[in-house]
């Protein structure tokens, strides 16, 4: 099953910039490799992230999202301790996430949408 997943930073704080954004990208790739998730595409904006995941079933989706959010939050706060104060929170990501199952036939469209997030914003 394929899922387009998105979630935001706590209080939509605009912290996914520069070194923090680059580190989040590294962390998502590391977590996917560690947990053996097929992370087909991902991108961040200044206050949220989009992932395209292949997961065995819908029940496993929440565990996968928890791995990405929890693992990246812990490690990003280790790398950038001042973020806790900047965000006024011990949580990097908001509690909730949204996801939509994607039919195989729509994968190229969704993958392109996710990969072009920043490019499309710059063009506006």
Describe the structure.
- It is built from five helices and four strands.
- It has helices at 18-35, 58-79, 83-87, 107-115, 117-123; strands spanning 2-8, 38-44, 48-54, 98-102.
- It is α+β, with helices and mostly antiparallel strands.
- The protein has a single domain (2-123), classed as Transposase IS200-like (Alpha-Beta Plaits, 2-Layer Sandwich), CATH 3.30.70.
- It is globular, with a radius of gyration of 14 Å.
- The mean pLDDT is 93.
- Helices cover 49% and strands 21% of the residues.
- A hairpin with a 3-residue loop joins strand 2 and strand 3.
Residue stretches low in confidence (pLDDT < 50, at least 5 long) are none
Q: What fraction, in percent, of the residue positions are helical?
A: 40-55%
**Quick one: CATH superfamily?**
Transposase IS200-like
The whole-angstrom Rg is: 14 Å
Mean pLDDT: 93
- For the largest sheet, list the strands in their spatial order: 2-3-1-4
The run of helices and strands is EHEEHHEHH
- Please give the alpha-carbon distance between the first and last residues: 33 Å
Query: What is the 3D form?
Result: globular
What is the overall number of helices? 5
Using the coordinates shown, work out and report the CATH topology.
Alpha-Beta Plaits
Q: What is the strand content? A: 15-25%
Total domains: 1
Characterize the main sheet: 4 strands, antiparallel
CATH uppermost class: Alpha Beta
Please state the second-level CATH architecture: 2-Layer Sandwich
* Beta-strand segment tally: 4
